[in-house]
Write a structure and sequence with these properties.
The radius of gyration is 37 Å and the shape is elongated. The chain is an alpha/beta fold and 705 residues long. It contains 25 helices and 19 strands.
């Protein structure tokens, strides 16, 4: 049994309105769960009224508990980590084959097992991209610090990289696209014409109302003051007030003029105001007539049309009191609020943020599509989306989605830009459909309990500082300001982070694989190690030291214009195309040093070690300039100054080491100037041939990094 029982389900639906619950109804099985009038849910709140309920589910069997039971079970696949793991397995396989071959070759030529195993271990170390964790985490931390300056808290560093791959952003409407406050739009009479009399009495009601001030009252007062109206409230005196409550859904004030005439001014929910009225004011004709059923239907239709445009509508009515009415009793209140004269309606709108349209346009430019997933009504969502430039040609509601089969559901989710009246589980299902069927990287921006499931399932969960605690717990990024422009900057930084990470992965893998293959061929050709273990470890250390600055490298503008993601087949093909170029240069060096200088003595072995060390280090140091850009390095595109400085310093160290005391300890010898002339020609040829291979690769695979 219930008595005027009003329930707020905003924690589940996201709608700010209240729902009337009653026991005197038999619901149809097709009625959506959250639309049932005879069911109350755990986690919702009673606004007003009383009732006796029968508990049908408790604890883990309630809707709220079953909803949160899915938390953490449907985390999306991290394709970047999965791809890195796969290439690691490939490197391990290559390592086992190549290192085994090198150890056996060295042993059968030197018959020194310990030295052969030591050299094999050194080759295995050279093949491993040791700096990968440092480069990745430095890039992510650098992005997190930059976002912190934009007033964002990054809880999960990997979310920055995922933002670079994000191609769909699902957003809630309230507070994100809109200002989350009401502004007054129109004051209309019963025929939809603007009439100042309607505004004047709405203003007097808001001005003299003292109990429970609401944002709509502030919006009316602000409209009057900013538009220069002079309604002279000083000529009125407040006698009494009947405050707002969720049962009556209206507020009345009793006012007295200087001539001692008394009026009741009432405003509230349109349906409630209509029910109070027996007369209608023809403002143009200065006449009052009976309130006919035709008048009531016309006003209700007008209210529906205004609501469909995304406006909130309240009614305004007045009544002239003939005598002083007793105050304080319920009967007196009901008598006062009866047989009133209907004046018109006041409309309000939650305006879109000035920055929202620009931010959505910038996101679209960068290949990120916006979809609105909201618990609000479809008409309101469509109105806001039209204001901010989101297409509304494909829209749907949660109840309609429930009627679709799986295939049609996925197809509808793919095409729809506005999805309204969604339950929390429907939001989750939409996000998962975009991820699993559409193969999209999805970001979700929400701040309510009803957004928690989608926040947890999204690749990038984003909440705001004013959101509920559970939403912030499941979010990867928390915005301290509700501004979508911050997300645009985050997307750009995510793509820069991804680009610099991929630079290191690709250049280190092809340099290491190319170098190890060269060592294998040189070992078979020379019948001795081209480098000693300590020389190889030193070369690898200096090379890795020079790569630390990669997170500070700049990225081409074209790269950040589109979403970037890790390709399963991209890296293996990249290695097959580019690693042989490095190996070819190493082999040319091998042939040049062997046949040009033709020194087969023990001193010649030391010379070859010195020559191979210098060429290999310069090759691995300079390769970043070829890999980091699609353009011609040093001509069309120049790296950032930290990368340039690192290249110069490491190259200088590599050239200078043979002439230093450290070089003597490393068993190096001085290299002739003719060899450095050869290196100049070699690297010019390497960059030329490498650029040709790069252009062919881009023509075939349509991308580089």
């Amino acid at each position: 049994m219930t008595s005027c029982f009003l329930n707020s389900q905003s924690s589940l639906t996201g709608e700010s309105g209240v729902t009337e619950k009653t026991a005197d109804i038999k619901e149809d099985q097709s009625t959506p769960l959250l639309d049932l009038k005879n069911i109350c849910f755990m986690g919702t709140s009673v606004v007003s009224g009383s009732g006796t309920g029968l508990i049908v589910s408790t604890g883990s069997k309630t809707y709220m508990s079953t909803m949160f039971s899915n938390i953490g079970k449907q985390k999306p696949t991290d394709y970047f980590e999965k791809g890195v793991r796969r290439i690691s397995y490939v490197l391990i396989a290559v390592m086992l084959v190549v290192v085994t071959a090198i150890i056996l070759t060295c042993y059968f030529t030197s018959y020194d097992l310990s030295q052969s195993i030591l050299f094999g271990i050194s080759v295995a170390c050279a093949l491993t991209p040791q700096m990968l964790p440092l480069i990745v985490n430095t890039s992510l931390a650098k992005g997190a610090l930059a976002m912190a300056r934009d007033r964002c808290i990054v809880k999960s560093l990997t979310a920055i990289r995922d933002m670079g791959s994000m191609d769909i952003l699902c957003i809630d409407k309230t507070g994100t696209l809109t200002m989350n406050r009401a502004i007054m739009v129109n004051y209309l009479d019963s025929w939809g014409l603007p009439k100042e009399k309607v505004l004047r009495f709405a203003f007097l009601n808001a001005y003299f109302k003292t109990e429970q001030k609401y944002p709509l009252d502030d919006a009316i007062l602000a409209y009057v003051y900013t538009n220069g109206y002079r309604f002279q409230p000083s000529q009125w005196k407040k006698i009494d007030e009947i405050p707002f409550d969720f049962v009556r859904r209206r507020v009345s004030v009793i006012l007295e003029t200087e001539s001692l005439e008394r009026f009741v001014v009432t405003k509230g929910a349109l349906e409630e105001i209509i029910n109070l009225c027996s007369f209608i004011d023809h403002i143009d004709q200065d006449a009052v007539t009976n309130f006919s059923l035709e008048d009531q239907q016309r006003i209700l239709n007008m209210g529906e049309e205004l609501s469909y445009e995304g406006l909130r509508v309240i009614g305004v009515a007045i009544k002239r009191l003939q005598s002083k009415t007793s105050e304080g009793s319920m009967d007196g209140d009901e008598a006062i609020e009866s047989e009133m004269i209907f004046l018109g309606v006041i409309t309000f709108f939650d305006p879109p943020k000035d920055s929202a349209k620009q931010a959505l346009w910038r996101l679209a430019e960068k290949g990120v599509k916006a979809k609105v997933l909201t618990g609000d009504s479809l008409s309101l969502a469509v109105k806001v989306c039209q204001e901010v430039g989101i297409r509304t040609t494909h829209v749907i509601t949660g109840p309609d989605l429930e009627l679709l089969d799986n295939d049609l559901f996925h197809q509808t989710v793919k095409s729809a830009t506005v999805l309204a009246r969604l339950t929390p589980t429907q939001k989750l299902r939409v996000v998962q459909s975009l991820q699993n069927v559409g193969n999209h990287v999805v970001g979700f921006l929400g701040d309510g309990i009803n957004d928690s499931l989608a926040l947890d399932a999204a690749n990038v969960g984003i909440s705001v500082d004013s959101g509920v605690s559970v939403a912030k717990d499941f979010a990867d990024i928390i915005l301290l300001e509700k501004d979508l422009n911050v997300l645009v900057a985050g997307v750009e930084r995510g793509r820069v982070t991804f680009a610099n990470t991929m630079k290191y992965i690709k250049l280190s893998v092809i340099a290491n694989v190319g170098s190890v293959l060269s060592i294998l061929v040189a070992t078979l050709f020379l019948r001795y190690e081209p480098l000693t273990p300590k020389q190889l470890i030193t070369q690898n250390f200096l090379y890795n030291l020079g790569q630390i600055v990669i997170p500070w490298d700049k990225v081409e503008e074209d790269y950040v214009k589109t979403p970037q993601s890790f390709s399963k087949k991209g890296l293996p093909m990249f290695i097959l195309w580019n690693a042989p170029v490095c190996t070819l240069c190493d082999l040319i060096t091998l042939l040049f040093a062997f046949f040009y200088y033709r020194d087969f003595t023990s001193e010649g072995v030391r010379f070859f070690h010195s020559a191979w060390f210098t060429e290999g280090l310069l090759m691995q140091t300079l390769i970043i300039h070829l890999i980091r850009t699609e353009k011609i390095p040093f001509i069309q595109e120049v790296a950032s100054w930290p990368v340039i400085c690192s290249t110069i310093i490491i190259s200088a160290i590599g050239i200078a080491i043979p002439y230093t005391p450290i070089g003597k300890v490393m068993d190096f010898v001085h290299l002739p100037f003719s060899y450095y002339g050869f290196l100049v020609v070699l690297f010019i040829g390497y960059f030329t041939f490498g650029q040709v291979v790069k252009r062919i690769y881009i023509l075939i695979y349509k991308k580089w990094l």
